[in-house]
Amino acid sequence: NLHQITFSEALSLINTDFNLGLDGFKEAKPLRYQKFVKDFQKEFKHFQFKPKAWTQRDLDYWASQGISKLTLDYFDVIPAEILWLNGKALWMYTEQNPIYIYQFKQEDRIKAYRPLGVKGKKWLGNGGGIVQGLTKLPEKGKLCIISSSLKDGMLWFEMGVPAVAPGGEGQQISSKIIDFLWACFDNIVCVFDNDSAGVKASIKLTQEIGCGYWNVPKKY
Questions:
Q1: Cα–Cα distance between 178 and 207 in angstroms, integer?
Q2: What are phi and psi of 113, to 5 degrees?
Q3: I want to staple 156 with a disulfide (CB 3.0 to 4.6 A). Which of 30, 107, 163, 194 is the partner?
C-alpha cells in the first residue's frame, strides 16, 4: 500500500489523478472483500449454553431410545436450560421441547438437539465437519459402524459395537479419517437410515471407501 490509504480512498485518488470525472463517488468495498465478510459471518457461529440437571423425564426419554445415562456421560451429552447464538437467546428448555447438548470437547464445538422439535428446528450447532464419536473409539477392533447420527452411534455402543457418525448422511469423511478407521478395525459397515436418501448415501460411501453397508429392511 504505497499511500497507506483504504481501498475507497485509493479509488478516489485514481479518479482525481486521471481526471476521470466520476462525480458522486460512493464508498465501496471490492466484491472479493464483500464475499469474504459474507462467508465469515455465515461461518462464525458462537454458541453458548447453560447446563441443567438431568431429570427423570430426560432419562426416561433416552431410555426409550435404548440409551443409558452412563452412555450419555461417556459421549459428553448433557441437558441445557438455554442456548445462545452470538449472544442472542434462541432456545429454552421446556418439558414439551427439551434441549440436549452434544459436546465435542477436543474441537471446542457443540451440537444442540431437540428431539421433540418440529422438522427443520431440531438441530443447531457449530460441529459441522466433525466425525462424531471418533474420540470415543477403542484402539483396535473387529468392526466399526458408520451410523447416520451420534444418537445411533450411542445405541450401537450400548450393543457393544464401536461407531462413528458424520455430521449428516450426505457429508464426506476425509480420507485421513477413513485410513485411520481401516488401520484400527478389520471391518467397516455403513448403517444409515433405510429411506431412499439413506440407501443412496450408503451406496455412495461404500463405493468411496470400500466398506460394506446394511439398511434395516423397509418392511420394518
A1: 13
A2: -130, 125
A3: 163
Longest dimension (CA), the chain: 77
Q: pTM of the full predicted structure? A: 0.75
Beta strands in the chain (DSSP E): 47-51, 77-85, 88-92, 100-104, 109-113, 123-125, 141-147, 163-164, 185-191, 212-213
For 85-106, write each residue's pLDDT tens digit.
888 898 999 999 999 999 998 8
Distance CA 206, CA 184 (A): 18
Go through 197-208 and write b for each residue having 16 or more CB atoms within 10 A of its CB, e for each that does not: ebbebbebbbee
Rounded Cα distance, 214 and 145, in Å:
10
Residue bearing cell 489523478: 17
Contact status, residue 143 vs residue 181, Cβ threshold 8 Å:
no
Residues 6+ apart with CB under 8 A from 40: none
In the chain, the amino acid numbered 99 is I
Q: What's the sign of the alpha-carbon dihedral 178, 157, 65, 79?
A: negative
